[in-house]
Amino acid sequence: MDAVYGRPVAVISSEGVDFGGALAYGRRAGGALRRMTFHERARALRALGAFLMERKEAYYAMSTLTGATRRDSWVDIEGGIGTLFSYASAARRELPDERFWPDGRVERLGREGTFVGRHLLVPREGVAVQINAFNFPVWGMLEKFAPAFIGGMPSLVKPAPQTAYLTERVVRDIVASGLIPEGSLQLVTGEPGSLLDHVEEQDVVAFTGSAATAAKLRVHPAIVGRSVPFNAEADSLNASVLGLSVKPEDPEFALFVREVAREMTGKAGQKCTAIRRALVPSHLVEAVTEGLRRELAKVTLGDPARDDVRMGALVSVEQRERVRETLAKLQQEARVVISGEATLLGGDREKGAFLDPTVLLCETPLTARGPHELEAFGPVATLLPYDSLEDAVHLTKLGRGSLAGSIVSRDRAEATELVLGMASSHGRLLVLNRDNAKENTGHGSPLPQLNHGGPGRAGGGSELGGLSAVRHHMNRVAVQADPTTLTSITREFVPGAEVTEDVVHPFRKSFDEIQVGDSLLTHRRTVTEADIVNFAGLTGDHFYAHVDEIGAKEGIFGKRVAHGYFLISAAAGQFVSPAPGPVLANYGLENLRFVEPVSIGDTIRTRLTCKRKIRKDLRPGETRPTGVVEWRSEITNQDGALVATYDILTLVDRARDEFDPPAEEIGVQA
């Protein structure tokens, strides 16, 4: 039934679904996804995001049936699609164009350097079973699907029945797009039936919903018996703390009031990250109550399809009744200070699932239990007075683990004490004040780059958080080998591996011609006093260790030494090929370490070796295909001892390939 007028929208059922067959099919079909590289999957995900964005208005129209206003739906629809773009971008920027992910550094396992090890991440050969809540039928699916897809795992999505019709509408378009491999995404609506009975060791299960349901699923015999990774993101009694230092006339006071009101009314309070407990200094309780009364009086209730409505309905009449029952239990230890029945602007008060915002006050929060244990999953919040920062921290922890918390204060010492006190029991903390008021995304807004999850009651899991969510869908294996074999496996040069030296200077080769392991050993150069003096005069770096004979003798080296940056510059002079060619620019320098000092009269030479290659996509307006080549640079002295090592990134011409847009689209002749 729709949430606004109580009219039938869809009939759903999972009767007759072969859950075991669906999972088996996903595991077989997942082979096509695993054969794609990270970059290929990222391009597909980006294209899918653009495809869905073109069809967003159809999703907005259907979303009003769930009780969501357009502002609520923006978070769900465009926020969900934006997650696809975010993961596509992160994968292209940070992951290799391979089917595996070299993880961490190479570990030297033997004294002579002939035995080394490194971790690799590879896709699990199963299905990511994703069970989602009713409140975000689009974002809830896409925020799980995106990292699973990048990680090479197909998804089987099980949305909550109340809003599954919107999820199904989006999935129908995803299938029609043809942009992702067959079997990458399956959808099951209705009851989950025997779904979890069929999960196997290579599968993963991700759940969003109530803490009680998460606790039951976590001990499912198949999950426990087959050691299936299980991630839970559950509801929690999130708190926002108004700092003791804040005065009623401060901007932070108004920010706190607006944030609590916004979190109460956004999605009609049906967010797992919403503010349920508002912690207020005891002397400000009355002022905050009045502020909330004024702010909530501005909230218009009714049909979310109308432009003049700020808050729609709860997802169903059944959900409204559950909130009312919890509200009645909360009133055993708290009293209602703000309530009322607003005039509806459209919608049906009886058949629709409308509930007016309600604020309670618990005057004994340190001894009460209800506000810290009972969640009214709707437009309900409880004010909790406190007298010290220690009490505030203790009150937040009584929720036994939260997804999100916020601190409203401009006093940095106060904010620091609260953050460090609350950090162990929260997955994310927002410090809000006048300085970030314009840009902050709010207490209850998970972001793709940051962790979404929390300890204890919040489920003990973690979603999003950038590429850490991709790791969850991959197996980490330690590979031990000799350097040359490990280089061959990882396609990244490992120190000590065999190199290839050619009569053609590596800087004369294009991106397509250069190979990992291509190397150049330069001519020698003896460092003179004139080099050091001239470099000091050129740069203005007259540090005593370089130019002061007496001071240098008393320093840690016992004599004058060359500038470290002179060594890097001298090395560049040794390995560059000065004529115009495929190498276009120095793109960066990373992992610089100075190992041994170089003195006057020492002789240096440099070995430059191709470490890895990174293809770059053409950006809008770019017409020249390029790639980045990462070079390992090692400077040694006359004794063969390493004096400096670092990685150089160069921008290099490459040939056009199948992933580039057609030449005519960018004005370039083929």
UniProtKB/TrEMBL annotation:
Keyword Oxidoreductase part of the UniProt annotation: yes
Limits of the Aldehyde dehydrogenase domain: 22-419
Domain of life: Bacteria
Entry keyword annotation includes ATP-binding: no
Gene3D superfamilies: Aldehyde Dehydrogenase, Chain A, domain 1, Aldehyde Dehydrogenase, Chain A, domain 2, Hotdog Thioesterase
Keywords: Oxidoreductase
Bias-annotated ranges (Gly residues): 453-464
Database matches in InterPro entries: Ald_DH/histidinol_DH, Ald_DH_C, Ald_DH_N, Aldehyde_DH_dom, HotDog_dom_sf, MaoC-like_dom, PaaN-DH
NCBIfam families, alphabetized: PaaN-DH (TIGR02278), PRK11903.1 (NF008868)
Segments for region (Disordered): 437-465
Name listed for the protein in its UniProt record: Bifunctional aldehyde dehydrogenase/enoyl-CoA hydratase
Domain MaoC-like: 516-617
